[in-house]
């Protein structure tokens, strides 16, 4: 879903000018891709779009650029120690300083089970929509850190 959206953004910027986020959001909606402002801001950052007087533009070579973010599985394996469930909430205990990369990885993946994350220094709170989804996500995380 994300790669489809990123490709649509790239395609729009190659074919037309886009002066602001709201215009980009409307053009994506015209293609059947509905996004929130927060998601669009994250996409702009991830695609490293530049904004100039003519609007947004792709960085040089962006059509062939690979994702700079490490795989979430690697981040979980390297930083996570344990995951605990409390109804619809998950608490991931990490190494010192590991909470930020884990939370950022969760946010980046946009898994359906994740409503949002909050990171401290060595603890990540993951909010899920309900206890069932939290349990599914807990099982997935445990498989990565085992």
From TrEMBL:
Gene Ontology, cellular component aspect: cytoplasm
GO molecular function (one): DNA binding
Pathway(s) of this molecule: Amino-acid biosynthesis; L-arginine biosynthesis [regulation]
Domain Arginine repressor C-terminal: 76-142
Gene Ontology terms: biological process: L-arginine biosynthetic process; protein complex oligomerization; regulation of arginine biosynthetic process
Family: Belongs to the ArgR family.
Described purpose of this protein according to its UniProt entry: Regulates arginine biosynthesis genes.
Name under which the protein is recorded: Arginine repressor
Species this protein is from: Granulicella mallensis (strain ATCC BAA-1857 / DSM 23137 / MP5ACTX8)
Record lineage: Bacteria, Pseudomonadati, Acidobacteriota, Terriglobia, Terriglobales
Name of the coding gene: argR
